[in-house]
Specification:
2 copies of one chain form a homodimer. The first copy, chain A, is an alpha/beta fold. Helices cover 38% and strands 18% of the residues of chain A. The first copy, chain A, is built from 13 helices and 14 strands. A 7-stranded parallel beta sheet of chain A has the order 5-2-1-9-10-13-14, sandwiched between helices. A 3-stranded antiparallel beta sheet of chain A has the order 7-6-8. In chain A, helix 1 (11-20) packs across helix 13 (305-319) and helix 4 runs antiparallel to helix 5 (121-131). The longest helix of chain A has 15 residues, at 102-116. The radius of gyration of chain A is 19 Å and the shape is globular.
Chain lengths: 320, 320
């Protein structure tokens, strides 16, 4: 059975994995997931991208928000409000801007307790996926903490990713991105095995600069993907010059790239032979080829299950 | 204004403090609270006795359970259940036996985050009391961790207090109690000041062996109370040979004491001049006096506000 590895951020990757499961066995699918936007809130270890993928594949994701659980309640968050007034100056306790639903909390409780017991994030991620009945293998990029740090242009300060993404609604311009701790961290053995042994590697339609880049920043990742470049296929997260979700388009421009499929191709050409783009971008095919990538044109906005299945089918076909 | 310090465990102390507030200014009341049954669950720092007192004085306690918040929901706890099945052998993650309500969680979130920021438990306890609008000064016995450890007679193992009290519903016999870490811990400066400077010290009707004893086990506490013994008044938690709540009666017997007001007197005679007992125990007055304590007889089961107020009035009067 062909094994497919998917290099994953959050929502876009989750939706691609869900689509892939419609045409390829989930048991032969491995998601290698970004943990650069992991955070600790209230002492709880939170892995937003892993959770988004787990909940999506479990059919439990809230379809409107794209994150968190459906039929969620917010009693703990609501109750946190009373502490904001008593928090001393300089304290960041009681962060009411990072919403954690009541049911979702149980996932963070379990992760936190297991990590405190000495389990690796790889082990805990597999246990949480099993608890949710997710048959895909989900693997964190690293067992060590890597923290995506974002320098905000106007404020001139560097903040952890969630401070930019959630607290500031990713609405402020970015001057730089850095992956704190990445030189001390290593790619998990399971992720390395996935990249070495899978017949196909797909780079999911995730933000190249803050979802895929943290994984690539780990020692050896670009080398192992470059060495098997022909069977690596990337799906552009930029369609018609815009990000499907999140700040990828603005961020590309702010950091000196082109907010287009061509800009994406220039970022991925070293490690992937093929770029999958939507028909609205077909006129840019020759520029992508000039950047060194083959082009596959197929609808890539997964607005229906059929479109998702066809996107997954074309993506796998491009690698074989 | 007369300042009153109350040496506190959980529910009994909370109810006495509430009664006291009816006849004595809350601003001139200091609760020094046991933290020996503090625990960490899911990575969250939990102080059950402090919370029970805070919620009671805020009028937010669930009146039937005696702990936790009224109109509470249990969504996070319910969601934790799915992780029990995937937990590896030997792991104690996903402890579904320790109920934490959704709104209650916010208190633990705040405490955990503040402690991680380097705040002392004294500071955090005051902030949480302020957030709940509690005018009494609530002071933890120690800023350092002291863990009440209970040796279970039948199982022959030593477990943290909550494993005995909650997990085993305090229904198993006890062979020993020990306060782990007490020699490395110190009485908080605020508690020491309260014991030195208050005109009256009341020992609340709490379990002498696992609520009051951890406080007494801290260096200097018995000495400072003994030195002012005449103005220290204890209220017996044993009425008619039985504990009003919890396992104090069985525990007294199991650990070689008498489960009666006389047994209580023998435990407190060194540090308190007076014992307040219920009329049902009036016939034991001479035995209490033989143990070295004066006796005040007044209804001590706080079943109505009036009884509570009269108990508080008689208790303060006994010390003056």
């Amino acid at each position: 059975m062909t094994t497919v590895s998917v290099v994953c951020g959050g929502v876009g990757a989750a939706r691609f994995l869900r689509a892939l499961a419609g045409i390829h066995p989930a048991e032969a699918t491995i998601g290698v997931v970004n943990t650069g936007d992991d955070t600790v809130m209230h002492g709880l270890s939170i892995s937003p991208d892993i959770d988004t993928i787990t909940y999506t594949l479990a059919g439990a994701i809230d379809p409107d928000r794209g994150w968190g659980l459906r039929e969620e309640t917010w009693r703990a968050m609501d109750a946190l409000g009373r502490f904001v007034a008593v928090r001393p100056c300089g304290s960041s306790a009681a962060p009411t801007w990072f919403n954690l639903g009541d049911q979702d909390l149980a996932t963070h409780f379990y992760r936190t307790a297991r990590l405190r017991e000495g389990a690796t994030l790889t082990e805990v991620t597999a246990e949480i996926a099993a608890a949710w009945g997710v048959p895909q293998q989900l693997v964190p990029m690293s067992n060590e903490r890597v923290t995506t740090m974002v320098t905000l242009l106007d404020e001139g300060i560097e903040v952890p990713f969630q401070e930019y993404f959630v607290h500031r609604h990713h609405s402020v311009p970015v001057a730089a991105v850095r992956f704190d701790g990445v030189n001390e961290a290593t790619l998990t053995p399971a992720a390395l095995a996935a990249f070495n042994e899978s017949e196909v590697v797909v780079i999911a339609p995730s933000n190249p600069l803050v979802s895929i880049a943290p994984i690539r920043a780990l020692a050896g990742v670009d080398a192992v993907l470059s060495a098997r470049r022909d069977s690596v296929v990337a799906i552009s997260p930029i369609v018609g010059g815009a990000a499907l979700k999140g700040p990828a388009d603005r961020m590309l421009e702010e950091l000196g790239h082109e907010a287009s499929v061509v800009g994406v191709a220039r970022l991925y050409t070293e490690i992937a032979a093929t770029l999958v783009i939507d028909p609205v971008d077909a006129h840019l095919s020759s520029a992508i080829e000039a950047a060194g990538m083959r082009v596959v044109v197929t609808p890539s906005v997964m607005s229906t299950a059929d479109i998702g299945h066809e996107l997954a089918r074309q993506t796998l076909a491009a690698a074989r």
